[in-house]
Structures
1.
Amino acid sequence: YMEEYDENELIIQNVQKGGVIRLAHLDGQTGNLDLKVVSRNLYMEGDYSWYELECINADGEKFGIDVDGDDELTVSVVIDKPKASDLKFSSSLDNIDENESGSVKYKGKQYYYADSGDAIFYKYCDDKRKERLYYYDFKCGNSYILSAEKWKNSNGTSSMEYFVSQIIKPSTITVYST
């Protein structure tokens, strides 16, 4: 369940499309990063949900921010999109999933299996625009997550996407408007 809080509060959980936020101390960025939210999307897995803010900076560069308020607030920002050929998995994703154990190496960092599951993605939080995906999350310490997502396409095929996200402290986020 999501913790109760005032919906007018300037916190990341309240940010919707059109909101403006600032991130400090993000890898690969000098200084602060000011972002405008262009859409808010929802992920559901059973009763559990988290969401993604699609943002752009002043140059029109895109940034994805995942906000997960399960046990405690976890906010992560996509900082890299690896190609499959650059990832070294300890075994197949199916094996890793089945054994709930395994790892993947990318750019010299080792990420260990954390979680996997079946989720539904709602573009713009709209239940008419839903897609199924299966995700595999690997963690490197408490700072980075490498996600592999298998999307089911409408034509019956599936496609894989890979993301590296940096976990950021909520204290490094400034919300200017929700």
2.
Amino acid sequence: MKKNWLTLPVRSRVNNAYARHSSYLLKRSGWNIGNLVFRKGLESIIRDIDSYSLSTWEDLTRIAFDESSMTVISCANWLGTSDADEISNRRRADLLDGVKGRCVAVGLGIQALHGERIDMGPETVRFANVLSSKCPILSVRDEITLKALSQIGINNAIVTGCPSNFINLDLSRSSFSSGRDRIRGRAAARIQDLRLMISEVSLTASRSSDVLRKIMRILADSNGSSYVLQTPALIPFLYGECDSVHPRYLEALADTSLILSRSRVFSGVDDWLFAAKFSDLSFGMRIHGTMVPLQAGVPSVLLAHDQRTAGLARSMYIPHFSIDEFLEETIESMAGLMAARFFDELDQYLLMREKLAGRFLQVLEVCGFQPRIQFERLGRPSV
């Protein structure tokens, strides 16, 4: 039996990143280190996933599939509307056509800005149909993706959220008690007096320059806080491979010393989780940059900036602010507001997490794959 995991060339860490150039880390993580977090979640969901051979899209041309083959497909925001999406999805559809046996596709998503019309091109539609034909049921990230698929006649999908939601299968309300106590103990303090883990700004988002300037003001007056990088915007600079930073950062900063002193990059999710554990509060524009501290038991709030992040936040009941809300509030009131939003919505998040685990179990069972026993207990509490 051939067991393949169609994914990046790595699981949830990039080994020996310290000895390589930044391009090695970025290429192997799919040009966004947050992709490793998605894969860490799958390791918690699918039984014996370590026995699956890692395969990239190009590897599909060299694999001899048969009806006994089993293929796990780590999806991404492949349902985009750009010319580049059309080119990529034409290739994906051609390659996926040759896959035989059982398939499970996890976490398919739409990529679109707020207010952008979701009008997929013919190659993206063709790819979605090929993927749908390979899996009895599709796991999609949010209601927006579910609706977009339904509009092109694909009706075998179910909303599951993101696998990163299940990295820590022991997560409970008590997991956040120490974080709550630390924040309450500093109730009169400003947000700068907390140890913050702030995820990288998405520079393509609307009003991202305003968000960046506000975050940099917070960081400049905050000891012990970190700004976690995921994309190529700053990582080569942090590696010391270039002297310049992205122009948006130059607009927000008087000099680059703040970026050098506060930025962090992780080559593996376990190290990222461990570092997050020592934070009091986390926020930022990256969904996986939010999920890591959340899974480590740290109060975390997402700044939802497009249809994808907002859709995921709603699907998983992740406490979140809109960009307008974040920008309208004063820095002095931010800590109390974020903590209140998080703890007011925590029970709803945990209840939805159990419901989404049950949906993931349905996807695995219908597609003929086995869940991890601990994950099955979460999704089926009576087991």
3.
Amino acid sequence: MNKMSKIRFKGFHTSLERKQIGEITTSFSGGTPKSSNKSYYEGDIPFIRSGEVKSKQTELFISDEALQNSSAKMVSQGDILYALYGATSGEVAISQINGAINQAILAIKPNSGYSSEFIMNYLKKEKDNILEKYLQGGQGNLSAAIVKSIELSLPSLDEQSAIGSLFRTLDDLLSSYMDNLTNYQSLKATMLSKMFPKVGQTVPEIRLEGFKGEWEKTTLEKSTDRVKSYSLSRDVEMNQDTGLKYIHYGDIHLGKVSMIDDGNSIPYIKTDTKLSEFLQQGDLIFADASEDYKGIAEVAVVVTALSEKIVAGLHTIAVRPQSIFDSIFLYYMFKTQTFRKYGYKVGTGMKVFGISPSNLMKYEFYYPDKKEQQAIGAYFSNLDNLINSHQEKITQLEILKKKLLQDMFI
């Protein structure tokens, strides 16, 4: 008795036929022109390698002569490209370009009556199962024979096309959100570099409308007061509510805390140590240790009044800005490459890198009046909200797509 998929489009009731991919398609692999002949790689034919099956462009291009004098073969936009070798084994996509393929890719062309989108999405859904069955331990390569032997259950062409169209729409939505996310992330990086003064400058390259005048110079030591950090070990972490939470430097590096409010999943702890200083709205917490230079003095900020007691913990440096400073402005200032480069310069260590409180507190920076600080902080907060919104949409669409792949294919 044929199995039926959990979800089917309304109006489709026909039974499914079980076929091997080799029965309903033709397929071939390509080859690589000799790298010793440089002229082979001076043409205008895109040369698709296994890591580029999903890409709209290629790193390498080959000539007509290279195509004629090697096993490289041409594929057309719309063909299925299946990666056979190495780290990309099992990756599959519909080719977005006309180009030549090497031996690490299997091109698959469905026969009349069968949908490329349907077959491609089935292979995508089965990727983990295929790798587990044929590449145990991640060793070795897939082959054309293996792919052609894979069985799938097929509805009518109309239903295949409807299913393929659904997943193409989801992929287009995902691509759109990912493109927008990349653009917003790029905009943020650009504006961080232009809305805060660079080294040797007293004002930024770009200012928000309505603001002018020189920025003033200060240091972190002059502009903030230290808040005590407690070197409590994370092995005292407790699951039950003890009324006391503890921020570990690893929480900052892992992104568990960034903009800190009551919604953060910060562990409760129980300790016999007498604690007297708790974090407040506006406090900045730096990680003073990192496994690489990029993480030196990574920062988090308390953005709301906290209903529970929270302390700065192991390998953190906490500061409380004075009233003329806006904490959100400072938080984003410490995200700039200007500050990151300072951290690289004064950081120490070989395997674990760090920054001392004295070096951190010596950091010099320029600042405008508080109204402009707040406007800059709000600008970047809104930009982060857009970035987070797109990241959430992408996650939701990926979860939906995975669920539909499981429920619409057998």
